[in-house]
Specification:
103 residues
């Protein structure tokens, strides 16, 4: 093999290495862009999810307040009904006591 043939072979191998490197670089850039796009999509979805969780927390807090208010109202109504029943029973017992003959 002559010197000229060796140089041509080296140039050919070097050109192949350069082309491979260029292809790798293009592939890495595409992977980088895809990764950045996916990260941006995930960030947007996470932001949406964060807003939905905050809305859910607000709804739960509102429902808890409403439930607490309903429980308080029902407890007051129950105590009033118990007192009314107690008063009726007392009146009935008193009326029965008055109608019974005394020995």
């Amino acid at each position: 093999m002559t010197t000229e043939e060796r140089f041509e072979r080296i140039e050919h191998v070097t050109a192949g290495l350069v082309e491979d490197r260029r292809k790798d670089r293009d592939e890495y850039r595409q992977l980088w862009r895809d990764t950045q796009r996916q990260l941006n999509e995930i960030t947007a979805k996470l932001a949406d999810l964060t807003l939905k969780v905050a809305d859910t927390n607000d709804a739960v807090a509102r429902l808890a307040d409403e439930t607490r208010g309903s429980i308080d109202r029902l407890a007051k109504e129950s105590r009033a009904a118990d007192q009314a029943l107690h008063d009726r029973i007392q009146a009935l017992v008193s009326a029965i006591g008055q109608t019974l003959p005394r020995p």
